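Technical note accompanying the year-one report. For the benefit of new consortium partners, we illustrate the data format agreed upon in the data management plan: each record pairs a sequence with a structure-token string. No post-processing was applied to the example shown here.
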Amino acid sequence: METSVILFFASVFNFSLGLYVLVAVRQRREFRDFGILCILIGIWDALFAIPFIIQSNTLFWARVMTLPMISSPLVLVRFIYPYVFDKGLSKICNYLIVIGYILPIFGFSFTDFFIKNATVFDSKLYFESGFLYDYFVIGGVLSLFYSVFVLCLGFKRRRGLDRVRIVYIAIGVFMWLFFIGTFSFLLKYFGFPEFNFIAPIGCTIATAIWSIGIIRINLFEISGFENLIQTNSIVAKANIFIFRRVDSVSYQRALFRLRKNVVVRIVQNFTHLQINSELTTDEIYSYLANSEKSFIPLIFYLQKR
């Protein structure tokens, strides 16, 4: 029962995140694919909980719950590839993945080539898989390795805050790789398939990490460095910490431009008040000290590179 409750909340989270992304940022292709990916994971979580609630037709539900994830490797690659290379995945790659991976698994997903039998015992799902299920898991793991490779290329090509965004994406991908590779493949290979329910929960943690980037620090848009400095939150501090580690040169340049703009703004305000007001020098100092406007940096100081 506890397993089904956890999976239910994971499903609600992924559904909500996916709908938010699709509705709020429909104009970007990479957002759309990420939103679809979140919804697929939400469906996977919900279907994964059914065998723990309905004690009959376990084999049927064990087969059904994998269906949303058959398309996930393609959607994952379509989500990451455009961000790094600024262009969509080629039609040839899309067709090859569909023909060589998605269609064969869908076509035989309700046969013994995929899952032979399944049962729930002691709140754990046990099942015996066929070679096509292994093909399904291996394909998913390979898509994750490919995503890591693409992100490594992107890390070399990008600078500044773009590298910070890639770090957040990479953390989520590694979370996927760990949980799917460990609980859907390795433990099953060593005779412990009953722990496979941890995989969808782990994937939810990965999407939660990505959601931090999308909702809190605006992962896919150029967010000004000044927002990081001015925001006193754990996310902003973590973002600054990562920025300093992954690209110290760009960080120092951005910090210099920030300080320079603060000085420029103060000098401009001081000169304006000295010429156009009757305030004394000490009164101008007091005014500037109490005015936040003097310390707001210009939004364009961090140039896109």
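Partners are asked to follow this layout when depositing records. The longest strand covers residues 115-121.
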